[in-house]
Amino acid sequence: MKTLYIITHILAVVLPSLRISPLLLIRITTIALLYAVAILIFVIYIQSIGSGIGIFSGLFYMPELEISNWLLHSCPSSEGGWLAHHLLMSALLPVKPKRLTNSEKQQFSLSEELKQILVGLLLGDLYAYKESVNAKLRFKQGAIHKEYLFHLFELFSSYCPSGCKTTNSAPDKRTGKVYEGIYFNTYSLPCFAEFYGLFYPEGKKVVPYNIGELLTPLSLAYWICDDGTFVSGRNITYLCTESFLESDIDSLMSVLSNKFGLKCRKDRRGNGFRIVIPKSSLGKLRELVLPYIHSSMLYKIGL
User: Is the pLDDT of residue 291 over 90?
Assistant: First the structure.
């Protein structure tokens, strides 16, 4: 608490006496307060360890995630807000072991909601790979979609050994720009092995044979978040399915039509096909996914 007192003293006494611009004063004050919040959370966490919560406290509700969300929405475009959010998401999570025993791995399970979400994400950008008999997941988005990525991390943080990390891609061949990405990995766990077997039966991602049973409105919402594209001039939503075989795309279209009542077609894109949900089914699509789709991705259904 001595550190918090020092920070408060600086803010209240020292800073006002310095001849600095109001804008700089606001920035310094904001950063100082963020560090104070970080220190307070860290102290609370250390105390929780002493009270017996232990290294698996990540399996319980974590108030620092609520604080990080507030920071993100309060200052989404500022460097200070982005840095503070990243620090809270990555550095202040409960300390977990890098390796788990087989017994500890068996204790992890997935709720029905998370299973449905994983189906949609695996149809999209989510990557799964096998380690021995178990499987682990890698979530990745461009920095432009950081709010959505942080939302996914909140959902799966209990299954992760560490927080979100940033990475830079190789320079774009056309523009020369380097694009920043954000990602996080899960533990290698038995509860993910089932999904690896469904989507990677021979090591390459495919559409599961029973996708009609697996796909729900909740799954569809996260599939659109990951791989949807809205064309405002035509009021249509694309699903970027170019990486799947045409037979797999036909299976997906059949489910969208027969199970959800969505009219759809496939348009050629390079060597593959995209699924198109036309304007006539846009209202029905919104009705299905609006209760579940993340707010930062509403534009993918034209909202």
Answer: yes
